[in-house]
Design a protein that fits this description.
With 254 residues, the protein is an alpha+beta fold. The chain has helices spanning 90-94, 99-112, 136-155, 195-200, 203-220, 230-251, and strands at 64-65, 71-75, 81-86, 163-165, 170-172, 178-182, 188-193, 225-227. The strands form three sheets. A three-stranded antiparallel sheet has the order 1-2-3. The chain has a three-stranded antiparallel sheet with strand order 5-6-7. A two-stranded antiparallel ribbon has the order 4-8. Helix 3 packs antiparallel against helix 6 (230-251).
Length: 254
């Protein structure tokens, strides 16, 4: 059950933010029971819909919402968590859904923001000089070798892929309320709460714990090292054959 004194935790020392999960409605509708509900604790049905009419397009400075309407997380350019807002009625809104699910939803948005998922070119062109002049015999030889490597590459199993080697970093808030695990690439992974402490924690204590736990995880983070596999070796050889063929074409018959 939400304790209304938790409203005192919200924004009293920070500027008002209409995109916060606890923000007042932009429509000007006045909530009931003004003696119980602080204006910053009231929202309409679209409380975290940052694409709602009149608010303009979403951008990272608005914070990353969850899919439950209780959490919003802000990060800096290095994706370090700088601020967290949590609805004081999150217990009622989530019901039996764990709070970690709301944060996991927000973390997914953070991890995917700005990520380039377009396929990379496995065979980038370089400007090497051909070691041999162009001839149809040389081109046929390169084509045969390319076909052999392609077949070998296609026959490889998952074990031939390169692997990232490292240790996942974990950070815990000083009060032991929250812990955050990072992925090997530094992305936000899972979040855990001490459920006993969480049941007695005020909103500000929860949001501060998340920020501090992420800072601790980043302090423990060490970049993983990539170990190439057989698939990487064959791909590199294919790249070299392609670039050699292009170089021979640029050189011509002499």
């Amino acid at each position: 059950m939400t304790r209304w004194q938790e409203v005192d935790d919200l924004g009293l020392d920070e500027e008002f933010d209409e995109l916060d999960p606890m923000a007042a409605p932009v429509s000007g509708f006045t909530p009931p029971d003004q003696d119980l509900v602080d204006q910053d604790d009231w929202q309409g049905d679209d409380e975290v819909d940052v694409l709602a009419e009149g608010r303009g397009p979403w951008e990272p400075s608005h914070g990353f919402p969850d899919g439950y309407g209780v959490v919003r997380v802000w990060v800096d350019d290095d994706k370090r968590i700088t601020k967290v807002r949590l609805s004081p009625s999150w217990r009622e809104k989530l019901g039996r859904t764990p709070l970690v699910m709301a944060f996991a939803s927000s973390f997914t948005y953070i991890n995917s923001n700005g990520r380039d998922d377009s396929p990379t070119d496995l065979f980038p062109v370089d400007e090497r000089e051909a070691s041999r002049p162009f001839s149809w015999e040389q081109i046929d030889e390169l084509a045969r070798r390319t076909e052999q490597l392609t077949e070998r590459l296609g026959a490889l199993g998952p074990e031939a892929e390169g692997q990232w080697r490292g240790t996942e970093a974990v950070g815990e808030s000083p009060d032991k309320l929250c812990a955050i695990r990072l992925e090997l690439n530094g992305d936000l992974g899972s979040i855990q709460f001490n459920e006993r402490k969480l049941a007695q924690s005020r909103v500000r204590e929860v949001t501060d714990a998340v920020v501090k736990a992420h800072a601790a995880a980043l302090a423990n983070f060490q970049p993983a090292q990539y170990e190439p596999g057989e698939a990487d070796r064959l791909t590199g050889e294919l790249q070299g054959l392609r670039n050699e063929a292009l170089a021979m074409m640029r050189r011509g018959f002499r």
